[in-house]
Write a structure and sequence with these properties.
- By secondary structure, this protein is α/β, with parallel strands linked by helices.
- It has eight helices and five strands.
- It has helices at residues 4-9, 15-36, 55-71, 73-78, 94-106, 123-136, 146-150, 198-209, and strands at 40-47, 81-86, 113-121, 163-166, 185-188.
- The strands form two sheets. The chain has a three-stranded parallel β-sheet with strand order 1-3-2, sandwiched between helices. Strands 4-5 form a two-stranded parallel sheet.
- It is globular, with a radius of gyration of 19 Å.
- Helix 5 links the parallel strand 2 and strand 3.
Length: 231
């Protein structure tokens, strides 16, 4: 969700106001997903590298989690949204940990949309965490398959993303779901995140629908996975 700071700067506002406006934008996109029938939406709210930002900005970002979860509680429950948080929750301030664990527990059976909030998240740290846990569990190297490895990630019980959207003209993954997004389609728009409306979202989806997803196959080749691959 890029461009919050630039959005605020263009209006002679503090960067923190851009983050507040950006947090409000999530609701509209989540509601659009429900309308369209998209089952899973993941928003990258705070990376492991974002701790290096100015202290006042980090403080606002930390406060936004319990603030927005409380403000959107009725919407979350009325729309049957399941909330999950991907990232190192244990490192967050107490208020954030309590707010996150409470809403995750209370919405675990909701089914209309799974909204993943990547907070204190980094793709590389997620992979390292999975490797360490595999080692702690005594898994033999020859027993580590892609499916087993994926089961040790934060996203173990949700599908890999089909589409990654980057706002504000950014053109890189920036440590976001780097294992899961291996075959995701990529869409970049110059629109700043606080200006990313339902219409902008529809444009991204329209572009996605025009893509041919071959997953390494030749075009028009049936997608068949054999039980045994030899070579």
């Amino acid at each position: 969700m890029d461009g919050n700071g630039r959005w605020a700067r263009g209006r002679a506002l503090p960067r923190t106001e851009g983050h507040r406006e950006g947090a409000l934008r999530v609701r509209g996109i989540a509601e659009a997903c429900i309308d369209i029938g998209i089952s899973t939406l993941t928003v990258f709210a705070f990376s492991t590298e974002n701790w290096d930002r100015p202290h006042d900005e980090v403080d606002v970002l930390m406060a936004l989690i319990p603030e927005r979860l409380a403000a959107e509680r009725a919407t979350i429950f009325n729309n049957d949204v399941r909330i999950r948080v991907l990232g190192e929750i244990e490192s967050l301030p107490l208020a954030d940990r309590v707010a996150v664990r409470t809403i995750v527990r209370q919405t675990v059976k909701h089914q209309a949309l799974t909204l993943n909030i990547a907070f204190n998240y980094g793709g590389r740290s997620e992979i390292l965490r999975a490797v360490r846990n595999l080692m702690r569990d005594g898994i033999a190297p020859e027993d580590v398959s892609e499916d087993l490895f994926a089961s040790y990630l934060y996203t173990s019980d949700i599908p890999d993303p089909d589409l990654v959207i980057r706002t504000a003209g950014e053109q890189r993954l920036s440590n976001f779901l780097i294992w899961q997004a291996a075959y995701a389609e990529f869409y970049s728009t110059p629109t700043l995140w606080p200006d990313f409306t339902r219409d902008e979202f529809d444009k991204a989806l329209a572009t996605y629908r025009q893509r041919e997803r071959k997953f390494g196959r030749v075009a028009d080749q049936p997608r068949v996975v054999s039980d045994l691959i030899s070579g």
